[in-house]
Protein: Basal-body rod modification protein FlgD
Amino acid sequence: MIISPTQTTAGTTTGNTKASDPNTDPAAAQDRFLKLLVAQLNNQDPMNPLDNAQMTSQMAQINTVTGIQQLNQTMASMAAQLNSLQVMQGTALVGRSVLTEGSTVTIDDKTGKGGFELASAATSVKVEIVNANGQVVDTVDMGGQGAGRHLFNWDSSKYAGSTDGLRFRVTALNGNTQVGTTSLALSKVVAAGAEDGQLMLNLSNGQAIRYTDIKAMV
Structure:
């Protein structure tokens, strides 16, 4: 379920109260048990009355079952409240730019943007911009960079081709030794929601990601 900030929380009802399920309602279960117990006492053999220990055991069992049902209902209610809270927190991210694993180039006012992580320091870092056909259309020379996360900007004003499908790849060297890199796509959060108890975010690049997939907010 994905909602935008202008939507209301789903499932709100007005003027109607949902009836409890008699199969899971603890009060209904207790009522059924007491009726069965009274019927059992009324129809017991006077010469062979119900054993006190057996009656106590039955009462303990119904108390245990009722307690588990009440606990399940409490946990379900807490899970629903947590989902609502997550969605509220997620809507606060709408409009924010985030970095996630990926190599898509984001074009913003004729400037291509993205990021990357270096496993260690590099003396030479180059970002190649690649079109949908796999051809390199430009290269951004980043020079030497330290280990960690970095952003890059690419002037796309001189690029006359289609920006659809533009991607980038990073090459990093420390002397003659290749340095490990992780490409990071920069995109804006456009909607938030909850799915299977997890906060989900819709991005402007069309991706739907978990909140835990975010590497950083910019």
